Amino acid sequence: MSRTTVNGATLHYDEAGPADGTAVVLLHGHPFDRTLWAPQAGALAAAGYRVITPDLRGYGESDVTPGKVLLADFADDTAALLDHLGVGRAVVGGVSMGGQIAMEFHLRHRRRVLALVLSDTSAPAETEEGRAFRNRLADRLLAEGMGGYADEVIDKMLAPYNVTALPGTAARVLGMMRATDPRGAAAALRGRAERPDYRDTLRTVTVPTLLLVGADDPYTPVTDAEAIRALVPHAVLTVVHDAGHLPGAEQPERFNAALLDFLRTRLV
Q: Is the keyword Oxidoreductase assigned to this protein (predicted)?
């Protein structure tokens, strides 16, 4: 684990793989941390890629910025981290909120994107109902902490059948959620409540793009991934069966196989 200060916040991050390998930065979702990507980091490093997995500000071991953190702030943090590491261009990937940060990164730092990997995410702007929900949830997390929320959503983060079939995975995901600082989670929720519409920027994507989605994802279902593919016609879409919102954790071998095949065959 390493750390650096960017844009006024100290970020903790892991690196794996050879320093001269193609850089792949993977952005976790809410309310997780960089260890969500452990199965992917190991597989990618073994295949010769330089894997960078940060704790987003407010999550894991990184500094908390109370109040509101926009997706643009996360994207700029990622660009600054790449600057610190001497990485000009990278494959930029993310799951859920991390996927939206990857889209924001493409919007703000387009020339630095070698390829996009978008897992279990959605492109439209937040709805009025969604804004109200995220702000209420932020208030609740600040008042109550993360425990009750984590227990309520575990069978949505993972497909319900995997909560019992994969107890180790369920325990790992619950542990990340419960350990998240409520102030960081709340700040990100308030920022996401203001997220813009990424459909216009997706229409301009020319780099190789991989879409992954759990077949039984209740938050961002397969139809959301299909809608992104309609905007990015050259994108590759892989539906990961026997998985919910976190297919990289639930079915890492299937997820990794799709990711590695994409990187081997689509990067030039």
A: no
